Amino acid sequence: MTAKKRYKITIPKERCKGCGLCVAFCPKEVLEMSEERKTNEKGYRFVKVVNQENCIGCTNCCTVCPDICIEIREYD
Q1: What is the SS3 assignment for 7?
Q2: 28-41 burial, b if ≥16 CB within 10 A, otherwise e?
Q3: Sign of torsion, CA 52 56 62 63?
Q4: CB-count exposure of residue 58 (10 Å: 0-12, 13-18, 19+)
């Protein structure tokens, strides 16, 4: 039996401008827009990872991110 692959998504909030494309294109609802009143240093709301364990490593979020700030790494 093969172990299920697991993935870690990293989105540096100081680089995210909160466009929401990654949220819209994630098939497993792993990401969502932050509801925090605080914003990043540029004044944008940002995207946060909320269901890390559901990530399937499809890289849709990385592909659509206009700022190329999302990183996905596989781990054991």
Answers
A1: strand
A2: eebbeebeeeeebe
A3: negative
A4: middle
Tell me: the pLDDT tens digits for 4-61? 899 999 999 888 888 999 999 999 999 999 877 666 777 778 899 999 999 999 999 9
Rounded to whole angstroms, the Cα distance separating 25 from 71 reads: 15
Question: Domains in the chain, start-ordered, CATH in brackets?
Answer: 6-75 (3.30.70.20)
Predicted TM-score (pTM) of the model is 0.85
In the block, residue with structure tokens 């790494």:
73
The closest alpha carbon to 33, from 44, 75, 41, 42, belongs to 44
Output the six-digit token pair for 55: 């990530």
Distance between first and last Cα of the chain? 15
